[in-house]
Amino acid sequence: MSEPLQSNSSTDKDKPVKRESMLANLLLNIVIPTLILMKGSESPWLTSQLTNLDGQMGTALAVFYGLHGVKLAIIVALAFPILYGIYDFQRAKKINMFSALGVFSILLTGGISLLELDPQYIAIKEATIPGILGLVTVLSLKTKYPLVKTFLYNDKILKIQAIEEALDKHQKQPEFERSLNVASWLVASSFFLSSFLNYALAKWIIVSPAGTAAFNEELGKMTALSFPVISIPATIVLMSALFYLFKSIKKLTGMSFEDVLVEQ
């Protein structure tokens, strides 16, 4: 009896983690929240859906807590990325730093919106989180665990053991550490660029007071534009850091791109 149980346990442990769906990511984090914020704020549609699902109780609760219309749209829209973050944690069986920060950012957005604070706090919040990541990336250079090794120089992307052996063989570790420092600054610059673009986008789009349908629509518009306006430029900078690292590895070890990249 004990042998089959032990075998099943080992099988479960070795079972590969299900990969994240990019389509689900985009739909639940950007597309659906954007549509709800832009189309659901002035319409009784959301409240009527609660009525269909829960009878009169859903509507009564929504009205009682002042969640009809504008506020209800915010809660429903932000619930999608929050639930997706929880799902991502269950899928990966570990906390993803970016997913956790994303959920925290969404909660801050919800709090600012529902408390009807000054819209400038949205811009500040949008700039602060990537700005902090950039600072932490730079400060981590002073520690034994620079964050560039989490973002780029890790065994999910590169064959770390083979690279380290080649660096030791050619006695190029000091030169490679300098390359990692440069890559760290490039990674940090991608976060600083995101911080600036986040702030500029929020200040440009969100001009209406919180608690209004116009504010919700602007929040939805900002969410929709955040991918092309912010994510693409930041990703280009991050990819530049990765290719710089590839070039440095090739120069210092003689290994080709195929030699160092992990097969997916």
Structural description of this entry:
Helix content is 77%, strand content 0%. It is mostly helical and 264 residues long. It has two domains: 19-115, no CATH class; 117-264, no CATH class. α10 (173-205) packs antiparallel against α11 (213-253). The longest helix has 41 residues, at 213-253. The protein is elongated, with a radius of gyration of 23 Å. It starts with a helix and ends with a helix. Residues 1-14 and 53-67 have low confidence and may be disordered.
Provide the residue-averaged pLDDT. 78
Give the proportion of residues in helices: over 70%
* Helix/strand class: mainly alpha
Task: Give the low-confidence spans.
Answer: 1-14, 53-67
**What is the alpha-carbon Rg in Å?**
23 Å
Count up the helices: 12
Quaternary assembly: single chain
Sheet-strand content, in percent, reads under 5%
Annotation, overall tally of beta strands: 0
Alpha-carbon distance between the two ends? 37 Å
Major β-sheet profile: none
What is the molecular shape? elongated
- Element order: H for helix, E for strand: HHHHHHHHHHHH
Number of domains: 2
Keywords:
single chain; 264 residues; mainly alpha; 2 domains; 77% helix; 0% strand; elongated; disordered N terminus
